[in-house]
Structure formats: C-alpha cells, structure tokens
C-alpha cells in the first residue's frame, strides 16, 4: 500500500496567506516593522500524513513549532527528529522536507517570514543552536502570542494590524532563541468603535453589509465612522470588509472543494463574476489560479 502524504486537509487546521500586493506596499512604507514580517501563518492539529518537500527551498524562512506528537525534517541533507517542544528554523532557499510521524501525528504551529533583517535573525538562531533544531519548555503564553498574531491578521490588513502582528513576530521568535528569558507582559484589551465594528463585520461576514449598517452598529454616522476607520486602518470600511471576505475565501479554496459560486454565496456575494474580480484585485490571481497554486 503506498504511503499517504498530505500537504493540507486536517480537521481544525487554519492558515492565512497574506496578499503579496499588500505585503509589498507595507514593506515599502514601514521601515520598522518590515525588517521582519509574516507572509503566511498557520496551525495544523493532529496532522496525520502531513508531508512537505521543497527541492529548491522556499522564498521565505520557515519556523515550525511542534506542540504534540512527533515528526522529522531534513534541511540541507541534515536530519532532525521533532517531538513535543521541538522547533526548527528552515532558511529561505534551502532544500528541505518535513513530515508527521504516522503513529503519533504532530500538532504544529508554523510561520513563513521574510524582511531585510530576517536572514540575520536566522543566522543568529543557527549560531546559537549550533544547527537548525532545538527544544523549548512549554509555556502557554507562547501559544497565546501566536494566537495574538493570528487573530490580529485575521481581522484584516490595516496598518495597525500589520505593524502589531509583525512586531509580535520578533517577540515570538525570540521566545525560541531566549527560552529562559521569555516573558510576556499581560495586555489589557480596550474596546473602541473601529475594533467593535470589525467584530461586527466578522460576525456578519456572510452578509452584504452597507457602510450605513456597519456605522450604525457602533452608533456613528456613516461619514464620521468612515473617517475614523480610515484613519486607524488605512482602508475604507467596505474595502476592509472585502479583505475579510477574501481572506475567508482563500481558506475555502485552500481547504474545501466548494465551487467559486458556492464560496461567493457563503460570503454574501450574489454575483460570482464580481467575486472573482474582487478576489483577483486583492490576491493578484483568480480564485481558480489560487486553488491550483495550493495543490
């Protein structure tokens, strides 16, 4: 019987692929956070038969953190065994492969990242570890930090979201580099109209909300709300709402076999041709091209 291999398709999995167009604009306009920034982020629980091989490497550096189960990885012909608490850094451009153990499937958190400082960070980690792989003690706050980055990006690609998530990336990676010193300061969450309205968007992602309806959810006039929202995020509210829809569309295309029209329906977009134009404008490829690129 042939060995089963899967790149994705695990119950409970989640991932975000950030639009390269937005990343390009962000890296050109923000010299602080763009030194090292996330391009892809995800979580694969109990990923049985998970396997990935890139003979020419990845365009980005990759961090994989194994929370549970076991797996193996090969980086530049060096073999590593991963178990609970293990992590591995894979430099951009390096041939590699990794796989979950068949008898004890791993649960992994993973991030692809790049930026002007990222190569130096990876070299620092390699030098400190004397290799690419090591182990850290379990700390819930490390997972909380990952969830913080993911949730922030899940709320869209506003300037504040991108800056915060990518500055957190330094903290997250340093938690592996300096495990003994790792300490996360508790943060208090302060509600504001923009954040509340984004939650409203997420709760009504399957509906075709108008600007007036979104503004009304936080008791603002459309004009006042729109100006406030653009000042905080750098985007108009409806454009931002569409970003959230396309983010979810990427997951449907990545993880399901739903047709484009069915995905559009799930996002409250009646016209599949309009949905395709909207998707292509943001992701620089059509929905079908995106799906093909992930196979």
What does this structure look like?
By secondary structure, the chain is α+β, with helices and mostly antiparallel strands. It has two domains: 14-185, Regulatory protein AraC (Jelly Rolls, Sandwich); 193-293, Arc Repressor Mutant, subunit A. Helix content is 44%, strand content 19%. It has eleven helices and ten strands. A hairpin with a 2-residue loop joins β5 (71-75) and β6 (78-82). α3 runs antiparallel to α4 (159-177) and α8 crosses α10 (272-283). The chain is globular.
Report the end-to-end length measured between terminal Cα atoms.
Answer: 23 Å
- H/E series: EHEEEEEEEEHEHHHHHHHHH
Q: Compute the number of structural domains.
A: 2
The CATH class designation of the largest domain is Mainly Beta
CATH fourth-tier homologous superfamily of the largest domain: Regulatory protein AraC
Question: What is the molecular shape?
Answer: globular
CATH architecture of the largest domain: Sandwich
Q: What is the CATH topology of the largest domain? A: Jelly Rolls
**What is the helix tally?**
11
Structural class: alpha+beta
Q: Mean of the pLDDT scores?
A: 91
Helix share bin: 40-55%
The percentage of residues in β strands lies in 15-25%
Low confidence ranges: 184-189
What is the C-alpha radius of gyration, as a whole number of Å?
A: 20 Å
Widest sheet: strand ordering: 1-2-9-4-7-10
Count the E strands: 10
Q: Tell me about the biggest sheet? A: 6 strands, antiparallel
InterPro entries: AraC-bd, Homeodomain-like_sf, HTH-like, HTH_AraC, HTH_AraC-typ_CS
Protein name: AraC family transcriptional regulator
Pfam families: AraC_binding, HTH_18
Organism: Niastella caeni
């Amino acid at each position: 019987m042939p060995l089963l291999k899967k790149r994705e398709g695990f119950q409970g999995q989640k991932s975000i692929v950030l639009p390269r167009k937005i990343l390009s604009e962000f890296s050109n306009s923000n010299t602080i956070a763009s030194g090292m920034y996330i391009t892809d982020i995800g979580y694969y629980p109990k990923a049985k038969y998970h396997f990935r091989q890139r003979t020419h490497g990845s365009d980005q550096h990759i961090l994989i953190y194994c929370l549970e189960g076991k797996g193996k990885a090969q980086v530049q012909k060096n073999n590593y065994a991963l178990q609970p608490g293990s992590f591995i850094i894979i430099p951009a451009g390096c041939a590699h492969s990794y796989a979950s153990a068949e008898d004890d499937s791993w649960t992994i958190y993973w991030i692809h990242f790049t930026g002007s400082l990222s190569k130096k960070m990876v070299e620092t980690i390699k030098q400190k570890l004397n290799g690419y792989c090591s182990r850290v003690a379990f700390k819930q706050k490390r997972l909380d930090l990952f969830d913080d980055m993911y949730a922030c990006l899940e709320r869209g690609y506003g300037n504040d979201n991108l800056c915060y998530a990518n500055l957190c990336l330094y903290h997250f990676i340093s938690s592996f580099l300096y495990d003994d010193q790792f300490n996360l300061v508790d943060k208090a969450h302060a509600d504001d109209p923009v954040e509340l309205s984004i939650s409203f968007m997420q709760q009504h992602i399957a509906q075709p909300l108008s600007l007036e309806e979104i503004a009304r959810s936080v008791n603002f006039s459309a004009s006042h709300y729109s100006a406030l929202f653009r000042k905080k995020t750098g985007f108009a509210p409806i454009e931002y709402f569409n970003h959230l829809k396309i983010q979810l569309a990427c997951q449907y295309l990545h993880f399901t076999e739903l047709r484009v029209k069915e995905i559009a329906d799930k996002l409250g977009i009646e016209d599949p041709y309009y949905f395709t134009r909207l998707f292509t404008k943001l992701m620089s490829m059509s929905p079908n091209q995106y799906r093909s690129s992930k196979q």
